[in-house]
Amino acid sequence: MVKRATVALDLDAVFAALAHPIRRAILEQLSGGDASVGELAEPHKVSAPAISKHLRVLEDAGLLKVEPEGRVRRCHIDAAPLSAAFGWLTRYRVLWEDRFERLAKHLEKDP
Amino acid sequence: MVKRATVALDLDAVFAALAHPIRRAILEQLSGGDASVGELAEPHKVSAPAISKHLRVLEDAGLLKVEPEGRVRRCHIDAAPLSAAFGWLTRYRVLWEDRFERLAKHLEKDP
User: Fold this and answer.
1) Are B87 and A90 in contact (CB under 8 A)?
2) pLDDT tens figures, A12-37
3) Which of B26, B63, B89, B103 to mutate to test the interface with A (most CBs of A within 10 A)?
4) CA distance readout (Å), A48 to A18, A20, A42, A43, A71
5) DSSP for B52-107?
6) Which terminus of chain A faces fewer neighbouring Cβ atoms within 10 Å, N or C?
7) Taking CB atoms and an 8 Å limit, are A82 and B96 in contact across chains?
8) Which residues on B lie below 8 Å from A14 (Cβ)?
9) ipTM of this predicted structure
10) pTM of the full structure
């Protein structure tokens, strides 16, 4: 049994973690299945410490879990923080789209 | 007619813009309707320059348009970059949830 730290959902950290193309690519890769740190580093032309830093940002945001498996560190995704970010966007997207629809109707009536 | 700069959709900038509670609060406020810079600053206990900086971050990410209206600067939301962020999350959320469902089924079969 692997001990896991409880990571509080922190929208600031989640959105900040998503604000880098390498971190989004890592999450995209992990969507297909768990991967080792080496497998995650492979597609990117950056140093090992740079990848470790990105993984740490994802881990701190609660998006990634790293677990030792023999000599390898296996990474997998934790979707809960993603759902929180998704929830925030969904809530306000509805309001924004509603405003656009009302504006469009207003313009139809009163061109 | 107000001239508008074309803002390229930049997911890095959009997610980074969403990674601050004051900027999210500004977007939440603007979901209810356009507002002046003063009205947006009012709920927050931070300096005017700090609010201006947050508005600039939102503007640079393409989430906010500021237009002069007499002496007042009116702010309104632009939902296109939000849709891009939403699209990214939606795409990977489906994959992640699919993985969780498969894992759950696997655990049911093989407890």
Assistant:
1) no
2) 999 999 999 999 999 999 988 999 99
3) B89
4) 20, 17, 10, 12, 17
5) HHHHHHHHHTTSEEEEEETTEEEEEE--HHHHHHHHHHHHHHHHHHHHHHHHHHHH
6) N
7) yes
8) 19
9) 0.82
10) 0.83
